[in-house]
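Hi there. Long-time user, first ticket. I'm pasting a complex I've been working with (about 769 residues overall). I'd like to know whether the download I got is complete or cut off, because the file seemed smaller than I expected. Thanks.
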Amino acid sequence: MTDLSQMDRRTLIERAAWLLGAAAVPGEALARVAHQAGQAPRPFLTPTRMTLLSAVADTIIPQTDTPGALGAHVPAKFDALLQNWASAERKVELVGALTKINDAAMAQQKKGFAALTPAERKAFLAPYDIAALKAVPDTRGLKGMAAMMAGPAVADPGYAKMRELIILLYYYSEEALTTELVYEHSPGGWTPSIKVTPETRNTGGLGMF
Amino acid sequence: MFDAIVVGSGMSGGMSAKELCERGLKVLVIERGRKITPEDYTDGLRPWEVPNAGMVPEEDLARHYKIQKDSFITAATQQYWVKDDENIYDTPADKPFAWVRGYHLGGRSIMWGRQSYRLSPQDFEANATDGHGSDWPIRYDDLAPWYSHVEKFIGVAGSKEGLPQLPDGEFLPAFGLNDGELMFKAAVEKAFPTRKVIPGRTANLSVAQPHHEELGRTSCQARSLCDRGCSYGAYHSSISSSLPAAQRTGNLTIVTDQIVHSVIHDPKTGKATGVRTIDQNTKVGKTYEAKVVFLNASTIGTAQILLNSKSEAMPRGLANSSDMVGRYLMDHLFALSTAGIFPNGPADSFYHGRRPNGLYIPRFRNVTEAGEGFVRGYGYQGGVSRMGWRTGMGQPGIGAELKARARKLGPWFSYISGFGEMLPNPGNRVTLSATKTDRWGIPVVEVNCEHGPNEAAMTKQVLADGKAMIEAAGGIVVSQAKGPGDPGLAIHEMGTACMGKDPKTSVLNKYNQAHDVPNLFITDGAAMASSGCQNPSLTYMALSARAAHHATEFLKAGTI
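Hi, the file is complete. Here it is re-exported in full:
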């Protein structure tokens, strides 16, 4: 996990550039960055909120023996979702979820969430996560595919959605699908039974399960 | 003048065109949507290349896809779904109906679920047996050779099971069940000896045959990206197989962007002489003429054309002396899903590849087991698989623990979803607005359709049986639907120009030929006299091939 509170200005600038993909090498990565830049000419989130988002994403999915949310450029992709996917209501909900975490950290820790040490961030967010995802009676009235695929209704749907998007963006990333999980775009055929070994990892992709 | 006009290029239109062309007729296919080709497919996009993590922008969903959003639309398939605000229809406020559509060359054959099951002898006798709807003028044996003909051409992977309620066909090797599914199968078949759990029968080429390869099709690569269009041509669609087959005869002409306004009828001869179209972009009207007209505009689209083709001679609409055009609209009960986790699943087993298919549980109610207060029956589609990285998404937990949980293979998870037969009810119908037109000046469709008491009783049993089967296999049910989705959501709408023996109570005869108009044939879902509980596209294609054969014979004999 990255300690954002310990970064100096230069590191922060480098990190911000890295988050936007500017440090990526030419070729495919550069094309991807250009594509993202085309979709999002100006970041939606303010630098302060981007730092907060980065801290939250890094706490939910830290770097381990594989890249974490920051290594997979999740904050920049999240910002692009805010610009290109989220409705006006959704933007309010997601930014509100971020703000709420920060407000709670301020109230409890007397510091903004991003200013906490990695250990403090995790200690704070873990119980917050449990409370926010507590199941509540479902009044959403979903039907069809939405009803089939929806998880249970939870206490803080704004946090749940933000968390879901961070996780989705991570596990759909090239970084996660080439290190954390296994993804073959074209498996070549169906083999209904193979033996699980210690090396077996979950497969990833855009499928439902 | 063409020998034949085929209105619509989707599942049934593609097959009609192929069969007519191969019999030497000069055929014009008229498609209301734009042209698309395999170059438009998005199956090459890797997960990280799909825009917005696969999600359609929320404001687009709200503005353009109010109905379609309840179906399978994603950012990778958005191009295939109609914009509801540009393709309007009406329903009563208390009777929602989901009209799920794709307007482009190939229609919904690009987007279909590929499940391919024959109706059974019992299905063709159902209306006669319990008195609902119009008795089919054909029986299973009439259609069986045409099922075989179509299955060989399109390629259907499946297993022979010897079940009377789900006749076997001409199958390619099945996509096998995984070990979790084999466990589920063994337990269900032991607890319920007359129920069967079998591999789904799907129009994916498990092993491409030479006649498939001649059309540029190759074996399925187990990518399960079918809904984006398949660059391998590994599943059947009009673009991958039927239209190319028609094209190679040299007899096919295709026009796109032409919305058929109405069929032209000559009261002197009693025949159709062609169709009027409106260019979807320029709104310029045009007329095309032919000796024979096949309507394959999809169930509701075909009814709309017939009802809009009224004339002095046919004031209620074309081929509608019976007043049955638009009636008996059906769909399947859909989204009746039960999900469970199997703590007892084979922990040391996994699988490789993304199978474009699942398992199937053929109908058993009112076959080998009585239905509780309902006639007809239902089958289940679904699967059993290892829970993947998403296992951790909804559960509390962050940090390295979350990553570790996502990396680890999850328990075996099952969902089975009932598809139930909906009775033909003449009150479930499509009509045209007397006052409202669409942006091309065509009267807007009004759909009035609802589930009835039979469907309500069936729903209870679908859910109860689903739960019982998962529990019989040692599963813990973790979620279950409360009721079916709105009619239409199964995307199996059918029945608005039903076949029947009596011209007073049906629209089409045993050749799918309009009782009132001898050179008019309808072979899309509109022709269905009952729905069975099986996915219907294979039956539409078999009816299309059979009708094309008879239409050609009649044309050669000079009787139409």
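A couple of notes from our side: The first helix of chain A runs from residue 9 to 19. Residues 4-180 of chain A form one domain.
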